[in-house]
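Subject: complex prediction, re-run

Hi both,

The earlier run crashed halfway through, so I resubmitted it with identical inputs.
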Amino acid sequence: MTHTEIRQAEEAQSLFTEAIGNAGEINELLRRYGVKFGIYKNGVFKEQFFPFDPIPRVIPAEDFHLIEKGLVQRVNALNKFLFDMYHEKQIVRDGIIPEDFIYLSKGYLAQCEGITPPGEIYSHISGIDLVQGKDGAWYILEDNLRIPSGASYPLIARELTRIACPGAFAQHHITDNRNYAELLRDTMEHVNCGGIRAILTPGRYNAAYFEHSYLAELTGAVLVQNDELFVEDNKLYQRTYNGGKTQIGVLYRRISDEYLDPLTFYPGSVIGIPNLMEAYRSGNLGLINAPGNGVADDKGIYYFVPKMIRYYLGEEPILQNAPTYLPFYDEDRQYVLDRLDTLVLKDVSEAGGYGVVFGSDLTKEQLSELRDTILAEPRRFIAQEVIDFLDLPILDNGRTVLRKADLRAFVLTGKETKVWASGLTRFSRNPDSFVVNSSQGGGFKDTWVLSR
Amino acid sequence: MGTISLEHSSRLYWLGRYTERTFRTLEALQGLYDKTIDDTAAYTAYLAAFGLPDSYDSSTAFFHCFLYDKSNCDAVAYSLERAYDNGIVLREAISSEALSFLQIAKDTLKRSEHAENILLSLLPLKDTFYSFWGCIMDQVYDEEAWNLIFCGKSMERLMLSLRLKAPYAEVSRIFQKLCRRLRFVPEGTPYRCDPERLEKLTAYLSSETGYNMHTAQAIHELERIFEVSP
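This time it finished cleanly. Structure:
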């Protein structure tokens, strides 16, 4: 650890004495309330508690103000881009984005062409991943516009931490984050086409089942599975136990696009609802998030988001991307090939921390193999400079140590676009790893946004 | 309220049944544990009441199997796991608060397995179930959902009381409670009982003599109370 890092760890230790002292109690409360996530290992489903670190990430008010403005700007541009993609594609015609990045993207769904969702909103809930560099600057790492998960964890952690450590909240001026359910309910209601609110889950054995059921409880939505739903006269209904039916006006679906409707997408889907897309296309159903959003959160399209902001909003981006290169462009490809051993390479079709390779970890032979793959499939990768993350203090067997961490901010778009004053801070428990995903053993922290 | 799905109605009903089965099995075993202090073979009567063979070397082996063995469908641990399986998919209907008591129950049971004094270590488990049901009464505002849970609970209690040949006065009280709850189940739903079967059951349980003579028939009708009689 550097001198600054040691100071950081010591500061955390003294600032959060109460939280550190009550770490056991907080984790016991999280266990009690079933804060779990599921994971499949070698084909076997295992439910495990999500390791919580009691030392919060603290974001000063002025930093959050900047993040908030930048995220609202980014998500508004992304929503405009999605509308454009499924209508005129003017940004492609104007040569800002090459068409390869649209039509070759797995996330582009031709079946969504011409559909205008209620309020022209595609990404109602956006999960934007950021990191803070050691210079204090925030960088956007990734946009998640399909079904970003994770808000429920800091939400329940805050509720329980306030019970276990009231003093910490009395001492600091922390913005209350327990309004997420209200924000989500308003977002759902804004696109409700007439009927009840429902959350569609693939079922108990989904990795994020806790979140699905907890958000349903907090928002007063009905938690549903596909076998109790049907479409009739282009309207979505829930079959009730007395033989009746209840219309669903807005569906927050927590299953992937390809499984949503077997008559439109993957025909073998057993968790979808036949004709769901017809209800959506007819304007009788609000779908959160809209199908087809994958075209905008593809790792390849990430490179173009600052250009989108300029194109659609006529503004300069407030938040910067991590320095990124596209081997698709000759100039970038040469740079990437020359500096392969210092960059991080990401396969655009992978997610969840998979398909990420650090050049510095590769042998000469592996680098040569990667070079050949890039030359053969330049569209498949993006390359980024390795950002010197600001490490965050975490508690490890009673000791405060520093680990890599990111921040998933949640941006909700209804009548207007709002940033939730909190977020999911994920960290790596492995001192040598940059990968913070829970599926790969990472833990989480609450994110405190200071109110002044 | 009209938003209870078929799947949910079944989960609610079985949540009531399995929580009650866990609680009553625990209660019965506690009573039995007390008896074995004076008579080490007292547990065999319990096995006989359920038509189960005595394949246990000792009362210790019996209690361990009936308290903690998750593969034994008559064990407390088994019923508790099934109660939890039903509860976890009902979080939004029963509340996180109510669900948390099932997690506490699981943790308490697990801890008691290694306790020196099993009876003492199991006492908080009963408190937890009283809290769970209290929480259900307090947090579940949908009367149909609430009634389904308590229908399941009363059904299980009556079934166990009949099998364990509980005193008539107790059986009669439980049966009256079940009848009141069954009346609130809406027509055209899976847990609306068959009136003919209910009539027969009422005939068997309307007097102590009838109860003593027709316990087996009463169990038979109760097991099929939601099926339409041929």
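The longest helix of chain B spans residues 6-38.

- K.
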